[in-house]
Every structure is written in structure tokens, then in C-alpha cells.
Amino acid sequence: MRTLPGSPVLRLRLLLLLLAGVCTDGYKPVVIVHGIFDGPEQLKTLSLFITKVHPGTEVSVIDLYNNLTSLYPLWRQVQGFRKAIRSIMRKAPDGIHLLCFSQGGLICRALLSTTPDHNVDTFISLSSPQAGQYGDTDYLKKVFPDCVKKAVFEICYNRLGQTVSICEYWNDPHHRSKYVQSNNFLAKLNGDRPHNDMKAWRENFLRIKKLVLIGGPDDGVIAPWQSSHFGFYDSNENVVEMRNQEFYGNDTFGLKALDARGDVSTCVHSGVKHVYWHSNYTVFMSCIERWLT
Ligand SMILES: *[C@@H]1O[C@H](CO)[C@@H](O)[C@H](O)[C@H]1NC(C)=O
Ligand SMILES: *[C@@H]1O[C@H](CO)[C@@H](O)[C@H](O)[C@H]1NC(C)=O
Ligand SMILES: *[C@@H]1O[C@H](CO)[C@@H](O)[C@H](O)[C@H]1NC(C)=O
Predict the structure, then answer these.
(1) What is the pTM of this model?
(2) For a Cys staple, 33 with which of 70, 104, 179, 201, CB 3.0–4.6 Å?
(3) Residue minimizing CA distance to atom 13 of ligand 1
(4) How far is the CA of 31 from the centre of ligand 2 (A)?
(5) 177-225: per-residue pLDDT in tens?
(6) How far apart are alpha carbons 129 and 110 in whole angstroms?
(7) CATH architecture of the domain covering 29-137+184-291
(8) pLDDT per residue over 245-264, tens digit each?
(9) Ligand 3 atom nearest to CA at 283
């Protein structure tokens, strides 16, 4: 009979290594980040979908900046979420999946762009205003009760305004230069206002294997709804699709490169209102499930 080479300690290590290979053939951990005015409570159904279809998956819904505190400045939220998600990444040598809803999708993208050592495999952006927001919605009314979209730039595009999350992705197509000058978050993230870290941020973002963009025309909150797929209004409020956006053409943050690699997947569903995206089983099975392996 042949014996394994090396010392008993070495053999034990080898055995453990083999066992680890056999026993962790399961699913990568999934981290969920909530949207504006909600929290882990609202994302319970989504995590149940995942564990039902992929038993044994470790799902974490990050319990930070819930409800009203979701209005806190986004870069501050990114720091908080990074800290929480980092400890999950450390325990997952094969990487994790990031599934982020609405405003959470912007937080997640900023986190990916500014975290050089992340190990996120698939980033799923579930109805997030990735190219910004410009619309009269209930959410806007909650923050600025007597304001119409045309006037919001006056509140948002200054120092004070830029300490409220919704203002940090408010993208008024009629006040483009004010947006580029004063916006503290989206204009930086998308490279609309060029800065020195752009190259590094782009590389960080490109560490992901796959970007999945989900949204649809009956959303009712994300405006234009195509922002969930990186489309946005031009100055006449006609929607320009992702591939004709300047940030795409210039590949300021890696979107074009990711697309050229074949790693941008889009999913469109009609009949889904904003707050139902994460609890709709049809959406889960057709847009999300296959990526969470
Ligand atoms: C947020 O609101 C939900 C109800 O929608 C409540 O159950 C929860 O305790 C709140 N969380 C915090 C941190 O206030
Ligand atoms: C895109 O590239 C053009 C031409 O080089 C440049 O004028 C423009 O400022 C760039 N836009 C962005 C958003 O980087
Ligand atoms: C769930 O998604 C399906 C397919 O897009 C849609 O027809 C249906 O209206 C949605 N249901 C809800 C409650 O959002």
C-alpha cells in the first residue's frame, strides 16, 4: 500500500484541502443591499426565493442605513456598506454575488468602483437609477413635498443639497452644466466630471465577471425607467439608450469594456411596479436565479 508523502501535518492539510473542494461545491454567498426608505424587512421575500431555489446559499441582507437614514450622503453609506460587505468577502475565497435594489444599486456600483480588492462575481442591479433620476414621484414628494421636478435642481445642485442621497443622483437634463459642476456622487462615479481616480475606479469595477441590469416600463418610480439600463434623457427629454451615452462611448467607468466582453446582461419586464421587483417570483426566476451559482 502506498502512503501519502510528507509529514502527518502536511497530510492532514492535504486532506482538509480535498474535503474543502468537495464540500463547498455549493453556491457563492449572496449579499443584498436595500433601496431608499426601506431595509432588510422588505427584502425577506427575495432572500427566501434564493434559499428555496438554491438551498444552502448564505444570504446576507445588510442592515444599515434603513428607512429615513437611507437619505444620508451616499459616499458615507458606501463606507458603511463596504465595511459590512468586506467581512463577508473575506470569508468567501471564491467570491460573492451582489444583488442591489434601487438606490442600493448605485451604492453597490460606487463600492465596486472604489474597492480595489473586491471579489464580487456577479453584480445584479435591480431597478436602480444607474444613469440618474429625473421625475415627479412619490419618493420625491416625501423628501420635497411641494416641489416639481423642474425646480428640484435649485435645491439639489449646491453643497447642502448634495448631502441628501436623492440629490446625489438627481440628473436634470435641462441643467447639465450645474449637474456636472455640483454633483458630488453620480457625476464622479460616471466620470461626467473627469477626475484623477477614474482609471483606477474603472479597473476596480471591471473585476466583476458579470453585470445584470433589470428594470421595466411600469416601474413608476425610476424616471426614465431606462435609467435602470443606463439609458437617460437628452436635453429634450428623449431617452438615449446606454450605447449612445457619452460615458459609454468614452468608457469612463468600464461599461463599454464590460459590454465588449459580453458581460452585460439586460432583463426587461413590464407589469412590475417599483416596490414589487424584489418580491416577484417570475422576475426572480427569469432575471436573477441563473446568475446566483
Ligand atoms: C424601518 O421601518 C420598518 C417598518 O417599515 C420597521 O419595522 C423597522 O424597525 C425600521 N427600522 C429602523 C432601523 O428604524
Ligand atoms: C468624452 O470624450 C470627448 C472627446 O475626447 C471629450 O470631449 C468629452 O469631454 C469626454 N466626456 C466625458 C464624459 O468623459
Ligand atoms: C410579476 O411579473 C410579471 C412578469 O413580468 C408581471 O406580469 C406581473 O404583473 C408582476 N406582478 C407583480 C405583482 O408585480
Answers:
(1) 0.90
(2) 104
(3) 66
(4) 35
(5) 999 999 999 999 999 999 999 999 999 999 999 999 999 999 999 999 9
(6) 13
(7) 3-Layer(aba) Sandwich (3.40)
(8) 999 999 999 999 999 999 99
(9) 2
